Amino acid sequence: MNPVEHENGMPQERITLSTAEKTDGFATIMKRLKGRSAQERAALKAQADEAVLGYEAFALGHEYLEAGVHEAAGRWLRVAAGHGIPGAEQALGEMVVRQTLEDFADFTAVGGTALTVDAAAPEVVPARSGVCMTGGSHPAKGDELWVTVLDGVHAARQESAARAEAAQITGQARREADELLAEAQRQAQAILDDARAEAERLRKAVRRQVIEEAKTAARATSAALSLGKAAECAAGARRDYASGAAPDLPDADSRSFWITEHLPVRFSRGVLEAAQQPWSMPDVELTHWLTVALGPLQESELSLQQTDHWVLFAACSFHEQDGEKIGVDRTALRPYVTHPPLDEDQVAQAEHLWRARRAAVGSGPQRLAIGAWREGHEGAAADSDMDAEETV
Amino acid sequence: MTVQDFSEAGLGRGAAEVPGQALAVGVVVVGEAELASFYETRVEALLNYLVRKAGRDDAEDLLSQVFEQFFIWWPQHPCHPSPVGTLYRIAQCRLADRLRRDGRTLTVEASDLEEALGEGDHADGFTGVDLRVDLGRALAELSERERQALLLRYVADLPVGDCAEVLELAVDNMKKILKTALRTLRQSPRMDTYEPAGWAKEVHR
Q1: pTM for the full model?
Q2: What is the pLDDT of residue A164?
Q3: Hey, is the C-beta of B140 within 8 angstroms of any chain A C-beta?
Q4: Which of A53, A81, B66, B115 could form a disulfide with B120 if both were Cys (CB 3.0 to 4.6 A apart)?
């Protein structure tokens, strides 16, 4: 297996291409080639020429090497290496090492011969001129050459090791750079995805808020319209009934407004029928509480319908908690009140009140029932039946 | 000899009309038909070589680069005696460039030669590993030129003649280098324990 197969763990099968694949491949290459600009074609041509010339330099280098002309061989091999020819750098390194070893071998041969040669017969010394100059009889100079040869070997080894290390470092740096780039791309993509998700969430939240505000506005408009008719007959300022303070009702207009503002209750037909069944409020009793709450009323001021009796009863009872602040003429009250149609919330509120009152009927003071109604009216109790029963 | 320069005039323009014709004595034109024929003949072997050394994904990209450069070069040298040699010279350089980016060098490796030496299949996996290790050490005893020769001959699967063209050698010299390389491997102390069936595999093809 070759290195690629090692990575895959399986031997590489030989690839065979069909005629169609070959045709397609050729067409693709030709199409790309024809789409190249003049500069791109020149660059491709330069690369091809570089390969051709580089191999020629590689061959020349080896020819010179075989001929023993190391200087020219080195020059041509360097040219080949500069053109990126595979093996040229290694051949250059091998040549340097070989040359160094040959020098070393020559030196040892010279030294060995010199040891056996008579100092008086220098003509038998081998022909290497540089070495002959030193002579085997001069150990000091021989040592220098020995050191030079060793330095050369050492330098060649160092150069080779440095080249290998440099190639390894370069490869590792390139791989790390690729990994960093890939990691940066992954992080950027993650940030982009988060930003998109956040933007989508905000858009949905804003949309929900807008819808909610629109609904609130619609409800407020509806409530304003429902109260509009009653407000037409009221000239005085509004009173804060929800605060629990006893209403100050100085005149008939204010009283009328108070009733329409705080007791805008009308049952639906079904609820009305149910409400009338369990208890029927005597007119006398109703008159009493209305008088307590509102003071003397003129017949022309109010028109109280039977269906609203129990609500008025509850409201008047509430005010009674604070004492009879208002003078009452029990016989003066003949209330009949008309109101605009109620919305769903108002019907639910009235039903809640009715249940509280119903729970209190026959069991004691109405005041307690009214307390339950107040709680229900303020929205604190979810199930008024339970509240009323507990209260009673 | 007149050479049609497609690099400036647009490759294949007009050439497809007269593919491979000698327009006049000494005038040789390499047209699109010749390029297509050459491509269909050589693409498979070159692709397998590139896949073997660089992997499938890189190989297809490299193949495209190599043929693009070759298709520019060949029409300008229509009388070149060995376009195959040039194709593989370009391929070697581009492959070496690609491997260099990964900190690798383009040379023959032990795993490349297992199959060539007929020792690729082993019932005992350790034998294969041992062979690979020993073969790698034995390869270190070769010269770089011998390793390049083995690479072209046994990994690129080129005939000896084409190998010689790539390395700018005479065929006899190429055979000599290959024989020397194989003999060195065979006689290496590392390989004493093996009796490879494929040692004598043809060098002369």
Answers
A1: 0.48
A2: 84
A3: no
A4: B115
